[in-house]
């Protein structure tokens, strides 16, 4: 392969993250109400195969070549019936690289309050929606238990080939799981991580 062939191959390519199995985008929707800014959440339908009944944001898997913002707005329209013109995109938030291999792009946005009364949740995906004051996340610290990620290496790993015939000291990690509780609902997992990050940014800690 020549240098010119390498230039040609690399020119149209956008750098990403190695070993990512899929990319997703969600809208983190803020709504202005008489009581102040609130965050709009969904509850996933009980009939869904993955995470039924869990609290989440509108969003889904990015299509090939699709930008995160476009995906988040498309999914919000499909799930809640809020059109693009009813949403003001404010900013992208920090990406979340999940240990299972997928990459999440959270997009912070403002929903026109007029659309709050005109939501059309897609019953096959959304059981219900609810609001939580943004101030709750700014004032409350989540419960943050964690669990270990322990390397599981088979006996057939070729340690001698990498120069460590006696074995290798693989490094593990711990995963933090932020959990907020609002009126009997648990806001946790990636949704909890996104809200914890947003609160830290708004408080000037991140």
TrEMBL record:
<keyword id="KW-0378">Hydrolase</keyword>
<dbReference type="InterPro" id="IPR045121">
    <property type="entry name" value="CoAse"/>
</dbReference>
<keyword id="KW-0479">Metal-binding</keyword>
<dbReference type="InterPro" id="IPR020084">
    <property type="entry name" value="NUDIX_hydrolase_CS"/>
</dbReference>
<feature type="domain" description="Nudix hydrolase">
    <location>
        <begin position="21"/>
        <end position="157"/>
    </location>
</feature>
<dbReference type="InterPro" id="IPR000086">
    <property type="entry name" value="NUDIX_hydrolase_dom"/>
</dbReference>
<dbReference type="Pfam" id="PF00293">
    <property type="entry name" value="NUDIX"/>
</dbReference>
<dbReference type="InterPro" id="IPR015797">
    <property type="entry name" value="NUDIX_hydrolase-like_dom_sf"/>
</dbReference>
<protein>
    <submittedName>
        <fullName>CoA pyrophosphatase</fullName>
    </submittedName>
</protein>
<keyword id="KW-0460">Magnesium</keyword>
<keyword id="KW-0464">Manganese</keyword>
């Amino acid at each position: 392969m020549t240098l010119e062939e390498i230039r040609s191959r690399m020119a149209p390519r956008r750098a990403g993250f190695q070993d990512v199995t899929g990319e997703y985008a969600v809208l983190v929707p803020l709504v202005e109400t008489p009581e102040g800014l609130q965050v709009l959440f969904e509850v996933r339908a009980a009939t869904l195969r993955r995470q039924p009944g869990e609290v989440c944001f509108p969003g889904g898997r990015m299509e090939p070549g699709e930008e995160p913002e476009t995906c988040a707005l498309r999914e919000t329209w499909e799930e809640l019936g809020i059109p693009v013109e009813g949403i003001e995109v404010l900013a992208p938030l920090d990406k979340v690289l999940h240990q299972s291999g997928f990459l999440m792009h959270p997009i912070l946005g403002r929903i026109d309050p007029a659309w709050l009364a005109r939501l059309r949740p897609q019953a096959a995906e959304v059981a219900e929606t609810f609001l939580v004051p943004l101030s709750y996340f700014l004032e409350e610290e989540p419960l943050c238990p964690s669990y270990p990620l322990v390397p599981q290496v088979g006996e057939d790993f070729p340690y001698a080939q990498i120069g460590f015939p006696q074995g290798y000291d693989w490094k593990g990690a711990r995963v933090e799981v932020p959990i907020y509780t609002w009126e009997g609902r648990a806001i946790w997992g990636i949704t909890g991580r996104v809200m914890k990050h947003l609160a830290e940014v708004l408080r000037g800690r991140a």
